[in-house]
Each structure stands twice: as structure tokens, then as C-alpha cells.
Amino acid sequence: MSSTTSAPVITTDKLTKRFGQFIAANELTFQVAKGEIFGFLGANGAGKTTAMRMLCGLLKPSSGKATIAGYDVYTQTEKIKRSIGYMSQKFSLYDDLTVAENIRFYAGIYGMSRPAIKEKTAQLLKELQLEKEAKTLVSELPLGWKQKLSFSVSIVHDPDIVFLDEPTGGVDPVTRRQFWDLIYHASDRGVTVFVTTHYMDEAEYCNRVSIMVDGVVAALDSPTRLKQQFGRDNMEDVFYELARKATRKAD
Amino acid sequence: MISLSNIKKTYPGGTGRKTDGQVKALNGISFNVDKGELFGLIGPDGAGKTSLFRTLTTLILPDEGEATVDNYDIRKDYQQIRNRVGYMPGRFSLYQDLTVEENLNFFATVFGTTIKENYDLIKDIYQQIEPFKDRRAGKLSGGMKQKLALSCALIHKPSVLFLDEPTTGVDVVSRKEFWAMLKKLRQEGITILVSTPYMDEANLCDRIALIQKGDILSIDKPDNIVRSFPGQLYAVHASDTHRLLQDVRSFPGTATCFAFGDSLHVTFKDAPSGSNAPSGAATGSPGEPQALLQYLQARNHPDATVEKTGPTIEDCFIHLLKN
Predict the structure, then answer these.
(1) Predicted-complex ipTM score
(2) CATH topology of domain A8-91+161-243
(3) Do A251 and B141 touch (CB under 8 A)?
């Protein structure tokens, strides 16, 4: 990853979201550096989705500050949306478009020019070794390929940051690791990766990990230091130690 | 209690615009589950897990093969089977606009019983959601929906329980709670067939079938599957994991290398025949671990370690996928 001394691309300061009496996200304060792979963990209902929606410019915070790629989450949400990519297990590609059509569609959405789209499509197909499948319907691709394509499409416009919401759910163990190769590759190119997962071994692959419990960031550090801090051998035990103390039952 | 013999199922091609590619969901699946066993189907999306569940619960008919549940034939005796199995599908399928209690009552009534009659069986699970019994099911959190769905699948005291990916997308804490509930149900003598994409949950089952693309890769006790892993596995560790991954892959003696949490799991190639290495060295050339360590130290991994380690179910699954 790139040097952590460069200016952070995500900065939050006491970022808070209330729904009536309920504080979904409570005074989140952290920074993410350029090119960092940042794991964003938490139990179901801990407030991860609310936090992600604020960071993506989709949900107005109740109080606190945050800038994403230098843009303000209150006033510059359209600029934020142009500067980020987003991929989740649910939101993905159009099944009844071909591989090439999906790339063209998303590149077009982000306002890329025709020559740029053409060049990018060729480059992506080559990188993903999908040249022969350019005219194949996405519905006919194996799940693992779909997920790799989905990731590539989410960063087709070379965003500063990509948000990945449980990107590897349900895929086989080999494909899951190939997916992480893509994440590393993007990080090497300077793309900041903000990722959620329920696979605790994947938490170990992140440069730093934050763990949310009941709306607050309960821990934030590198996996090695978190394991030292909690005297545990692996991230699963660290997570369990923190998350089992959660008092929120319903979300 | 459950018996399958050469079950095959093929679905017609999806859109069929460019190919008429049929989807082979099950390619001749055979296995037996004993009474009172907690049996796990372990495999990723598209492995055929749901097709198996739908076959055994008599919701679809296989193209070929025989299967029985509690000695009843899935083709002829579907009514008897439906009366004595509990099924929790992968997708939440209770009535969203009925309350918690109404849903449970509905399922009890459909099976000709009452909540009261079998309350003991569901007590431990249902008590956790009982404070919310007047809440509509659609308004429940993920963990609570899961508990309600399990209660509804159990309310008629089934002899066999089918659970299709009950812990997918669920956090580590809720997953542990759920498996603790399954252990208790097994003690009640209920046979349980459960599927999961999480390899670490395999160890919680009595026996497992590793399944991929409609084929069973292996069926055994988790311990035996781990023991059958061929060769010696090594854990390689260094602080810069990402660079380490690239360097270990480029080492000529590396056969396989996969990231496992904070270390890499590595196997070495067999010694080339005709060399001085002892014959039959299926575990990789004995000098390779030391050679890798030197290779890594020369590539600026001063803190690198190479140590023998035991395989996990996930190592075995990857090995079986590769072969």
C-alpha cells in the first residue's frame, strides 16, 4: 500500500446519525489513508450500513463532520458519488446484458467518453481474461467471474475510493482468494478500499480494521495490534470478544 | 433417516439467447444420513445445496435417482414426508405482515398442532423473541427472523429438519448462538441436514459432504477429511503479507500457496525424480522449507517464518477443488 503519510482520503469527526431517539452511528471519528485497505466490521445492527451510506453521500448525517476524497458529506454529495465506486453482493450487474455491454453501461453512467470506454473495455477484458466471453450474457457466467467483473466495473471510472459491502459472500474458497488479489491490485494502484465482511480471515488481509459495536467504533488498529491488545490469536476471537458485549437486540 | 441414490437434476437454460446451456444442478448425488445425525452440506453458491433440499422436501422432482426421507419415498409418499419434515429455506419465507405469534400459530395450525403442545421443543429459541411476539415479522432484525423461522420449522416436532444456509450473512456472534441451538436440537433426537458456505462451521457437524457444482467431493467426519489431506502443509508468516504472497508464489518449489488469515498455507512440489531426495517424497522435497526461508530472507522478509501446520476443512476443500 502507499505511504500512510499522504493526506487521508476519508476523514470523519464525531460523525453521528440519529433516527428519532435511536443513535444508529455515534460520533464516528477515524481517517483512512490513500491506498489503504480498511476493514469495516461489526455485528448485524451495529450501524455499519448507516455509516457507509453517510460516507457514500447517500444519507445526511445528524451531526459531526466528514470529507470523502476532499468533498463534504453535507454539501458535495454529487462530487462524492463521482469519486467513489460501490459494490455489494446484492447490487451487481445486469444479467441480460453481455459482459462488454455491462462495462459500457457503467462507464457511460460515469460519463466516460466513447474512446475512453472502448479502451477501458479492452483493458478490463484482458485483465480479467474474459476476452472470449465479451459477448456472453452475464447470467451465463459462473458466480466467481461475475463478482470479479462486478468489482472491475465498480472501479471502471478510476475512483479514489471503492466501497465493498460483503463482496465475497457465498463464493468458493479459491475464488474468494482470487477476489482479494484484485483488491490488493487496486490498492497497489492507489485506490483506497473500504470493505465489510463476515469472513474473519479476510479481516486479517486488511491494513487496518475497525469494529463497530452498538453504533460506536469499539476498536480500530492493524490486525496484528488488535490481536495483541485483546490477547487473542485471531481476528475472529477479537471480534467475538467485542461484539458479544453488544446490548442492541433489534436493528 | 435420509437416503439418496444417484440423484440427478438438470434445469433448462436460463435466457437461452445465445446458448441453450442447461444447468446441471445435481450430477448423481448419493449419501445417507443416520437418525439423530447433524449432517452438513458444505459448498459455495451454485454447488447444488438448495436443489438437494428442494428434492428432499418434495418441492421438486429429480430427473433420475431414488431418495427416501424417514423411509418414505420422495415421489410416492410426498404427503407423509411433508408432514414430518421441518424446512427453513435460505430466503426468509414467513409472512412479513403477520406478527411473530401469528406466524407461529399459522404453522402450528397447518400441521394440526398447537404452540402449547410442542412448546418445550422451541422454548429455548422462542423465548428469545417472545418479548416481540406482537411485532410483524417483516420488522424483525436478521437474527430474530432466523430464530422465528427456526421456531416455525420446529413447531410440529419434525423428525427431520432441513436448514438451507441458516447462517449466511449473519455475524460471528449470532452464528455461534445458532450452532449452539442446533446442538441442543440434536440432543432431542432430531435429524438435521444443514448447509453452509462457511467452511469453519463444518467442524460443528457429525459428518459433512463437501459439494461443488453438483458433485460431492468428499463425505466423512470432519476429522477424517482433515486427516486425508495429502502431504505436509506449511504456514508461512511475515509482516508484509501482500508482498509475501507474491514472493512465495514466485519461489520455484511452491506447489500451492493460499492466504489463510495472517499467514499463508503452502505445499511444496515433489522432489524431481532422479535427484538425491528420498523416493516417494509425496510431501515435497524435504529441503524446500529451509530453501523458501532463505529465499524470503533474501527478498527483504527478515521476520519470515516457515512452520509445519495442520490443514483445515477449507484447505481440504481447496485441494479437492484443484483436483
Answers:
(1) 0.82
(2) Rossmann fold (3.40.50)
(3) yes
